[in-house]
Design brief:
Length: 163
Amino acid sequence: SKNHLFGDDDKYFTTSGEYPVFKTKYGTIGIMICCDNNYPEPARILALQGAEIIFTTAAWRLQEADLWRLYNCCRAAENNVFVAGINAFGRLEGLFLFGHSMLVNPRGQILEEVNEDGSSVLVRTIDLDEIAAIRQHSPGLKDRHPQEYGALCQPADLNGILK
């Protein structure tokens, strides 16, 4: 479900406020759509619900390439999960979507990234036991203090910030 709309997305989509996870024979997966990856909270919610692999589908432009890589790596490392970032490739309504789909490990390291011409398919075997091993030594989930984050759940006056 898409919860963070971009541009005129609100003409075509509505948000659900839900972050479902799915148990499969390959592991427990969560899905984020496009701009949901811009924010740390959706990935954290999915991880807290047991997601081991988060799939992010997107249509990001070439000028956002650095952020695409950064956000996928951060979401994986913050939550000690695998992130499969799937980005569209080609021209769409005057925009160049740069592809570079990738698989990131729970330490935030890119394991595989498809080439620039969009003709690759990424296939990789992952070891879900790596998640538990990393989480034993990582404070990401176990040492959180949600009682300290009340301001994140409140509307903010952005007038002074967005000048």
